[in-house]
Specification:
The protein is of the alpha+beta class and 205 residues long. It contains 6 helices and 11 strands. Helix content is 31%, strand content 19%. Helix 4 packs across helix 6.
Length: 205
Amino acid sequence: MADERGTGADLRRALASTTLAACVGPVTDEAAAAAGFARRCAPARGRLGLLVRALCDDLHPRHRHLRTGDGEVLVHGAWVSGGDHPVTLTGLERMLLATLAERPGVAVSRPALRRRVWGGRCHDSAIDTALSRLRRALRPVGLRLQVVQRRGWALHATGVPCPAPSRQATAVTGASPSPPPSPGAASGPSRGPASGAVAGRPIHE
């Protein structure tokens, strides 16, 4: 379909780099790997619900929470949100911010940025221009870049843990935790009616 619209080459180039391909199951995942898709996620079985879980598990560790003097900023890919002012970064701005956000508050040198973002091939003026544009893009969300003399640039923020841990981190097994016993409830084996009824009334699950 993409080839018919003339966008097949662009699609394959994107999926061969940093774009995540969500595959509905192992068969689709194998086909995507054969096509050169670099980043993929797929459930062990071909189920739509399991695909959503696999996608969430893959994307959740990739976002960051940053604390600034004005509040908290959420960074997820090219989308940056602080308060009521979300912004969407360009591809170059996203890569710059991701590099700086790995260690907030720690200076990243010009040679390190050149190597990490440009693959070692760019002029100093290109780095300066890109950082200036990133600074302007982040201004609405309250995230600032700091120049550290003779060392480089740093993100003026502090990394904070995500308030919603991932499904893997909480070791979800598929069953909801049992609610605490109600006050006055007796402990030990139940002596009430058989399973499926309470006080003569059927339980509808």
